[in-house]
Design a protein that fits this description.
This protein has 529 residues and is an alpha/beta fold. The protein has three domains: 276 residues, Aldolase class I (TIM Barrel, Alpha-Beta Barrel); 88 residues, no CATH class; 56 residues, Double Stranded RNA Binding Domain. Helix content is 39%, strand content 20%. It is built from 18 helices and 16 strands. An eight-stranded parallel barrel has the order 1-2-3-4-5-6-7-8, surrounded by seven helices. The chain has a three-stranded antiparallel β-sheet with strand order 11-12-13, with helices on one face. A three-stranded antiparallel β-sheet has the order 14-15-16. The relative contact order is 0.07.
Length: 529
């Protein structure tokens, strides 16, 4: 007998946006909903119309969007104890949202009923039953989230089961067991679900939080125990320590355990990294580099022994093919690098290093890293270095001079940079003001280059990182600067090192412009502005 298909319920647009530092706009929510639909999740929980005006507006806008694979779910709670079910504002807003699915949560932990609701235990069961029955009368698919279910079961198993039975009696289509505090471990999840299965007939699901770092493990254990729906968020974003991470749950179930989904197959799996990074981008968060499957470091190899083995057979240090989840293999160049790392890194980047130059490249990299350079996040600097050593790079410009000045006035500080470059026999001197000396240098350099190479006007700075390498040296410390840019769909990073933070930044900026101009010359598909 084959395994049941698992339904994926995404709550990024409700639970996820409760994470500290995240604030999705209405358009952000629409964009994420479209992305999740194209990826193939079964349900998208899109907010609480009875509590938040933005969520209410979202449900109006999402009606205009043609979703092909997913069902939209509105979220809310059981009726207020003081209200009649037909007059409850929250429930009426859930109906008005006009979604095919409604998810409501109710209390299954007697502690909450007594100390939060402060109503009799039996009355809470009535709230659950009447709320679900009301929604079913309006022809909704109803998902009941049993809030704090596992804690409730441990404290009072009979009452937790009674809460589920009240929802089942009301007609709930799903009973979702929530580890709301995120404190469970897989063993408890398994034992409790095995007991619950003997008490109710309605399909079960799992909603796990990650406060004990077990959100993914608990979700997988719930599926093994019989749960048919998994709730979580993209990248695990959510309140406190976050929700169970669908970017780990989905590939674990698919690749490791042989489960299938309604709309997510091999083709969609290859878009997992894209979906992960899309949500990070919309949330204005830097992607977690060490995130399993989709993180930049997930298939990255640094030690020479590892790189050598991976070159011979990727299975030696990779549990799946990176391409199967839309990621890629990376070989880092570091102080631990040997010849194998450099050759594999060059191969990854499409660089052909003649054998006679390999020892020179290896020694030069070790020499630079001894000075404080780091090429792990600066592939562009690595490529420029290799091509320069091998005589395969044509100089596009040279720097004649640069300087920065800060003028202090009563009203404001004026920060000015002067850059003089030479292209062929022509010289260009440019002066620019900026928010700081590095910003002013960046503007001045690009303004000078744009006279000869208009493409530099379209470059976008993505990140600027400064690292003090020997802090005990105080103001005489060595500084390493990493910068990353984007242009016409390509991204690259460069590095500069100096005892002077301005000079270190300048080296990284110059490398970045050199790299872009080199790429435009090499690749006719990169558009010039």
């Amino acid at each position: 007998m084959g395994k049941n298909k698992i339904l994926i319920y995404d709550t990024t647009l409700r639970d996820g946006k409760q994470a500290e530092g995240i604030n999705f706009s209405l358009q952000d929510m629409i964009s994420i909903a479209k992305k999740l639909d194209s990826f193939g999740v079964d349900y998208i929980e899109c907010g609480w119309p009875g509590a938040l005006p933005k969520d209410k507006a979202f449900f109006e806008e999402i009606k205009k969007v043609e979703l092909k694979k997913t069902k939209v779910a509105a979220f809310g709670s059981t009726r207020h104890a003081k209200n009649k079910v037909s007059e409850d504002h929250n429930l009426k807003e859930l109906i008005t949202a006009d979604t095919p699915v409604v998810t409501i949560f109710g209390k299954s932990w007697d502690l909450h009923v007594k100390e939060v609701f402060r109503i009799p235990l039996e009355e809470n069961l009535t709230l659950i039953y009447e709320s679900i029955a009301f929604l079913k009368d309006h022809k909704k698919e109803v998902i009941f989230d049993a809030e704090h279910f596992f804690d409730g079961f441990i404290n009072n198993p009979e009452y937790a089961i009674e809460a589920l039975k009240a929802a089942e009696k009301g007609g709930a289509d799903w009973l979702i067991l929530a580890d709301t505090n995120g404190g469970m471990v897989p063993e408890k999840i398994r034992d409790i679900i095995n007991k619950v299965k003997n008490e109710v007939k309605t399909p079960l699901g799992i909603h796990a939080h990650n406060d004990s770092e077990c959100g993914v493990a608990n979700s997988i254990e719930a599926v093994r125990a019989g749960a048919l729906q998994v709730q979580g968020t993209i990248n695990g974003i959510g309140e406190r320590c976050g929700n169970a991470n669908l970017c780990s749950i989905i590939p674990n179930l698919y690749f490791k355990m042989g489960y299938s989904f309604n709309h997510i197959g091999e083709k969609e799996m290859k878009r997992l990294t894209e979906v992960s990074h899309f949500v990070y981008e919309i949330a204005n968060m830097a992607p977690e580099t060490r995130q399993p499957y989709t993180g930049m470091s997930a298939f990255t190899h640094k030690a020479g022994v590892h790189a050598n083995a991976v070159e011979k057979n990727p299975k030696t240090y990779e549990h799946i093919e990176p391409e199967s989840v839309g990621n890629k293999r990376r070989i880092l160049i570091s102080e631990q690098a040997g010849k194998s790392n450099i050759l594999e890194k060059a191969k990854e980047m499409g660089l052909d290093i003649p054998k006679t130059f390999i020892p020179v490249v290896v020694e030069k990299i070790k020499e630079l890293e001894n000075l404080g350079y780091e090429f792990e996040g600066a592939d562009a600097s690595f490529e420029l270095l290799v091509k320069s050593i091998c005589g395969k790079i044509k100089e596009k410009f040279t720097v004649e001079s640069f300087k920065t000045l800060i003028y202090y006035t009563e009203d404001k500080n004026i920060i000015e940079a002067t850059v003089k470059i030479k292209v062929g026999e022509l010289e260009q001197l440019t002066v620019a003001e900026g928010d700081g000396p590095v910003n002013a240098l960046d503007i001045a350099l690009r303004n000078a280059l744009s006279v000869f190479y208009p493409a530099v006007k379209g470059v976008k700075l993505l990140d600027y990182k400064v690292r003090i390498l020997n802090p005990k040296a105080g103001t005489a410390a060595i500084t390493r600067v990493l910068v990353s840019f984007r242009y016409d769909g390509i991204e690259w990073g460069t590095v500069g090192v100096s005892g002077n933070i301005i000079e270190a930044s300048w080296k990284a900026l110059v490398d970045s412009m050199n790299y872009l101009l080199m790429k435009i010359e090499e690749d006719e598909n990169i558009k010039e502005c």
